[in-house]
Backbone:
């Protein structure tokens, strides 16, 4: 959900609430795979007037994009929230990369936006891009990754995550978890780890992401709790 | 240019010649930055009837795409032809990656197609994708790269090349040659080289690509020699 700043005026708050309701309705429709609906169905579900829609979005596509970006922001929060027990920055980075890679198949709508907008997302001020940069910097500071320019590091990280998604969608016969972990290991080696350390980090157990994503995007039951 | 098989019928040959003339006209227009012209101007330049156009392409966009794919095929041939003096497979791979990375700025139209279709090109049966796979296999056989699944290796290679292009277009203030060589080094390390070997390979002198690309896409003078 879009945050509503406490210091805003009543008008600003209502505006943010309307936007938030539209985004939630779009996320529910995405979860049901029903992005072909008319705008009127979106506004009815969000309980706002159809004229209001265009105060917030130019098109339905723009709304659905915003809905997935919002879901990705929630994903970033989720990946962070998992880490209470994990103080190793490289392991933190690797876990986020391995979980995000698994989303390509577990949350295809979210993956679609990652593929189309991954470069923008990697350089955006919020969401998964800045978290990745933060984790890489921390691993560099801890001596786990080689010290180097972050932009350079992000070329491999972002490019590999996007291309991984394309390959996993194109080739359903591939073992997606295995491929994701192998690519994660390659990225870690490029960032400066030994292959042995990278492979070890990429073979640790992960939280069950199919449980986690039900809270994000893929659970039609969310529509029952507006 | 599209090849004309020797064993084809006269009809097939004429058809291939017409397609080739359309592609050459489109490459010339790309080189002049004039992709907004009507289809009639393309067909006049190719000296074919406007009705003929739709026997070969559904749209002008499809023609321009085919024109750049053809140019990329020429690029792949060119990168191969440079290598008479280079018997080291990893050095061959690195040189092709470093030169292709430089094309993002030297040949923006070609880069545009690389960004939009890089994944398809990497898995296509002809062009730069199969050449990259061939070079990686050779370097693996020579013990320069770690032995591993080619699909896995291509995720990093393709993804990094595409994301590199996005970054170089977005941020004109970056030193494109330096960034390209650094990313190449990272890819080589991910493929199994030591950082020292990778950095050494990426600091060797390159052929001047601004000379080479004039033969490919960026020389309006080509229109004078139909």
Residues:
């Amino acid at each position: 959900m879009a945050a509503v700043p406490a210091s805003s005026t009543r008008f600003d708050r209502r505006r943010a609430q309307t936007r938030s309701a539209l985004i939630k309705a779009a996320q529910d429709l995405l979860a049901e795979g029903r992005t072909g609906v008319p705008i009127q169905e979106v506004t009815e579900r969000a309980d706002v007037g159809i004229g209001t829609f265009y105060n917030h979005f130019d098109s339905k596509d723009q709304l659905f994009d915003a809905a997935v970006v919002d879901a990705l922001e929630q994903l970033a929060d989720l990946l962070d929230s998992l880490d209470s027990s994990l103080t190793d920055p490289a392991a933190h980075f690797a876990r986020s990369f391995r979980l995000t890679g698994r989303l390509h198949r577990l949350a295809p709508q979210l993956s679609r936006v990652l593929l189309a907008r991954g470069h923008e997302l990697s350089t955006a001020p919020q969401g998964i891009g800045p978290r990745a940069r933060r984790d890489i910097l921390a691993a560099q500071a801890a001596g786990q990754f080689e010290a180097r320019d972050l932009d350079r590091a992000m070329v491999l990280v972002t490019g590999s995550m996007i291309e991984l998604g394309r390959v996993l969608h194109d080739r359903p016969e591939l073992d997606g978890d295995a491929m994701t972990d192998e690519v994660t290991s390659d990225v870690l080696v490029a960032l400066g780890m030994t292959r042995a350390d990278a492979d070890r980090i990429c073979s640790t157990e992960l939280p069950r992401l199919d449980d986690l994503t039900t809270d994000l995007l893929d659970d039609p039951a969310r529509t029952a709790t507006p």
Q: What stands out?
A: The interface with chain A takes residues 119, 123, 146, 148-149, 151-156, 158-164, 166-167, 170-171, 174, 179, 182-183, 186-187, 189-192, 195 of chain B (CB under 8 Å). Chain B has eleven helices and no strands. Residues 219-226 of chain B have pLDDT under 50 and may be disordered.
